[in-house]
């Protein structure tokens, strides 16, 4: 059975990237790797749309998130965390682990946060030192209004804006410097279309100033050490050399496509997937602000979303994703990011139709496929 990877992480990896990573391994302190890292760090600034440092860590995105707490905050500091899903919830857990007092803004799953809630919280307590947000909440398929939140946080010189963009960077437009984002995290296995294992964190001058005052302990995720090493085109500890070689190739391909074209492609694929699902009579889980990174679809009433996810994999070789936590059995999810194109969407929609038809759900085969094709045909 041919296998198709259409999960929201890890995503598909292109043959070009796989071949690049298959080259004989470099030593992480060799001159050739120093030259490579110099190019990669500049290309990371390009995709981040920033002049800030972009650190390269050997970890999943969660490692970058953890370092974004431990390097910039002290026990007892007050922060806001936006919790509208599993990954917003993770910010709260990380802050708690380091003794940082997190005031949660709880958002109903499927909804985006209202920026006025953040504005009200900061006005009420100007001692708050950070606002932790999620650009694309992978568990719910919702995109939060990062630009609007950034405009609010800019007005508080002692407060940092921290963004989990693990499933957002390289999918839709996020302007790090222009929007006042102080710390932003992404991972290798989402839109960058690499295997898991690298995290990237951009850090503003404003954030570095707060790092000088932070009292939490850190060793491996020591961002100052990483910044010093990066200035010499090194990493503080052993680099994931093959992944960095693959990253170089992936960023090269994205630059050849053009950043706005990447955004347009992902947006079009996401739109086609969403409209196809609606054409089949299915409901999207996001009630507002759907993310272009992943399409979260409600299982029809009386049907198990986990069984839909399982049948896609077992019967048709398509690895998608099920629901997490309270959404388990209620939704299933399809990725629209990374190394993906027109016919990945057609395959996904067609397979969903076949799975639902096989489960006895009344639908006309080809309905969603036709809707997707009409959208994907448009220039």
Question: How would the blueprint of this fold be written?
Answer:
Elements: E1 4-5, H1 15-21, H2 31-48, E2 53-58, H3 61-70, E3 78-83, H4 86-97, E4 101-106, H5 115-124, E5 130-134, E6 136-137, E7 142-143, H6 146-153, E8 160-164, E9 183-187, E10 198-203, H7 205-211, H8 223-230, H9 241-257, H10 259-279, E11 294-298, H11 305-316, E12 318-319, E13 321-322, E14 331-335, H12 342-358, H13 367-377
Parallel strand pairs: 1-12, 3-4, 3-5, 5-8, 8-9
Antiparallel strand pairs: 2-10, 6-7, 9-10, 11-14, 13-14
Describe what this molecule looks like in 3D:
With 379 residues, this protein is of the alpha/beta class. Helices cover 42% and strands 16% of the residues. The strands form 4 sheets. The chain has a 7-stranded mixed β-sheet with strand order 2-10-9-8-5-3-4, with helices on both faces. The longest helix is centred in the C-terminal third of the chain and has 21 residues, at 259-279. It is globular. The two termini are 33 Å apart. The relative contact order is 0.17. The model has no long low-confidence stretch (mean pLDDT 97).
């Amino acid at each position: 059975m041919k296998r198709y990877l259409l999960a929201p992480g890890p995503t598909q990896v292109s043959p070009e990237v796989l071949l690049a990573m298959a080259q004989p391994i470099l030593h992480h302190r060799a001159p050739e790797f120093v030259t490579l890292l110099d190019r990669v760090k500049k290309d990371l600034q390009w995709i981040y749309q920033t002049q800030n440092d972009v650190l390269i860590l050997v970890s999943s995105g969660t490692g970058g998130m953890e370092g974004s707490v431990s390097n910039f905050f002290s026990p007892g500091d007050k922060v806001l965390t936006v919790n509208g899903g599993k990954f917003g919830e993770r910010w709260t857990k990380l802050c708690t682990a380091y003794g940082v007092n997190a005031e949660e803004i709880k958002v109903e799953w499927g909804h985006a946060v209202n920026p006025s809630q953040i504005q009200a919280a900061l006005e009420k307590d100007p001692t708050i030192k950070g606002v932790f947000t999620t650009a694309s909440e992978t568990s719910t398929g919702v995109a939060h209004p990062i630009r609007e939140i950034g405009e609010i946080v800019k007005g508080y010189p002692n407060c940092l804006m921290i963004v989990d963009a693990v499933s957002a960077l390289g999918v839709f437009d996020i302007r790090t410097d222009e929007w006042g984002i102080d710390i932003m995290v992404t991972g290798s296995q989402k839109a960058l279309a690499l295997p898991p294992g690298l995290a990237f964190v951009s850090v503003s001058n404003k954030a570095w100033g707060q790092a000088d005052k932070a009292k939490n302990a850190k060793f491996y995720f020591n961002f100052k050490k990483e910044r010093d090493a990066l200035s010499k085109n090194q990493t503080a500890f052993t680099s994931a050399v093959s992944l960095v070689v693959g990253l170089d190739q992936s960023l090269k391909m994205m630059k050849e496509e053009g950043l706005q074209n990447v955004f347009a492609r992902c947006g079009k694929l996401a739109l086609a997937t969403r409209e196809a699902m609606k054409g089949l009579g299915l409901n999207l889980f996001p009630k507002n602000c759907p993310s272009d990174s992943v399409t979260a679809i409600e299982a029809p009433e009386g049907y198990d979303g986990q069984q839909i996810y399982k049948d896609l994999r077992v019967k048709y070789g398509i690895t998608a994703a099920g629901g997490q936590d309270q959404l388990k059995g209620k939704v299933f999810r399809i990725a629209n990011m990374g190394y993906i194109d027109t016919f990945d969407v057609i395959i996904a929609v067609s397979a969903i139709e076949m799975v639902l038809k096989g489960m006895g759900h009344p639908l006309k085969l080809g309905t969603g496929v036709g809707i997707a094709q009409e959208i994907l045909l448009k220039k």
